[in-house]
From TrEMBL:
Coiled coil: none annotated. Keywords: Bacterial flagellum, Cell projection, Cilium, Flagellum, Secreted. The gene is flgL. Residues 3-141 form the Flagellin N-terminal domain. This is Flagellar hook-filament junction protein FlgL. GO terms for cellular component: bacterial-type flagellum hook; extracellular region.
Length: 316
């Protein structure tokens, strides 16, 4: 087989180009810190990295969702803490109202105090999250869940509690309905002595007590005389219900903390897996870079020497 000068030139140029390409590839790895910068570098690792990056993005989204959930749950728990204090204050007033020595003026004064507590609780029931969204309105966050005046407070919020996915297999309630808190009692509620259903609406309980206390003692009917005791039982049941919701919120906050720890551990593991897939092995890269640099220099030398071996130069 005859080897022409042109063929020798092309072969040497191909060798130089290949060596230069490899040398530049290792240089790029060292400059970027990445072994895989495009799919052709390592198709299997690149495809695995795509799947892993999706898992990382999902983990980050759940971490953001947990931050939002923690803020919502903490806010609700804080508001219900104030509701708890208000109900306990109302209980103290109701206990004092049972004092048979109180004058009508004393009773009217107590009615004013209880009315103030009722209005405070109504204001808390219509609390917002700082962005104008009502926290006890379910998904109807743009309008106040409770409306009305004395003796006629109604719930206008949604019928579905706000939930949030906080992990791949965990969805929790982050916004309870106002009806679940202010118009409900627990299964172990104190029953009425006559066997009738326990009163559930917190505002109705307080309004009935206010009405009775504003009525002169001499004008009270037998049914009205028992209203204070009924309110006392109702407040106890309502308080237990609020405390039950607060216990649930506390459990959720604890769970969110644990899920955050799990998410952080997962993120570290995913970062390590991604590093193993696409990051450069510095010892290997530096060694290969130096070796390829030497090979490139040898290719340059061989090409330079080969140029002086044509027949025309030998016949001179």
């Amino acid at each position: 087989m005859r080897i022409s000068t042109a063929m020798m030139y092309q072969q040497n140029m191909r060798g130089v180009t290949n060596s230069q390409s490899e040398w530049l590839r290792y240089g790029e790895q060292m400059s970027t810190g990445k072994r895989v910068t495009k799919p052709s570098d390592d198709p299997i690792a690149a495809s695995q990295a795509v799947v892993l990056s999706q898992a990382q993005a999902q983990n980050s989204q759940y971490a953001l969702a947990r931050t939002f959930a923690t803020q919502k749950v903490s806010l609700e728990e804080n508001v219900l803490g104030q509701v708890t204090t208000a109900i306990q204050s109302a209980q103290e007033k109701i206990v004092y109202a049972n004092n048979g020595t109180l004058s009508d003026d004393d009773r009217a004064s107590l009615a004013k105090d209880i009315e103030g507590i009722r209005n405070q609780i109504l204001n808390l029931a219509n609390s917002t999250d700082g962005n104008g969204r009502y926290i006890f309105a379910g998904y109807k966050t743009e309008s106040a869940p409770f409306s009305g005046d004395a003796g006629n407070v109604t719930y206008n919020g949604g019928d579905k509690a706000v939930t949030q996915s906080v992990d791949a297999s965990r969805t929790m309630t982050i916004g309870h309905l106002g009806s679940q808190i202010f118009d409900k009692v627990t299964s172990n509620a104190v029953p009425e002595p006559d066997g009738s259903a326990s009163e559930t609406n917190l505002f109705d309980m307080l309004d009935s007590a206010i009405k009775v206390l504003n009525t002169p003692t001499a004008d009270l009917t037998d049914a009205e005389k028992g209203a204070i005791d009924k309110t006392s039982r109702g407040l106890k049941n309502s308080l237990n219900n609020v405390l039950t919701v607060r216990a649930e919120l506390g459990t959720q906050l604890s769970e969110l903390d644990k899920l955050d720890e799990l998410g952080s551990d997962r993120a570290l593991g995913q970062a390590q897996q991604m590093s193993d897939l696409v990051d450069v092995d510095w010892n290997s890269a530096i060694s290969s870079y130096v070796m390829q640099q030497a090979a490139l220099q040898a290719s340059y030398k061989a090409f330079s020497d080969m140029q002086g071996m044509s027949l025309f130069q030998l016949n001179k």
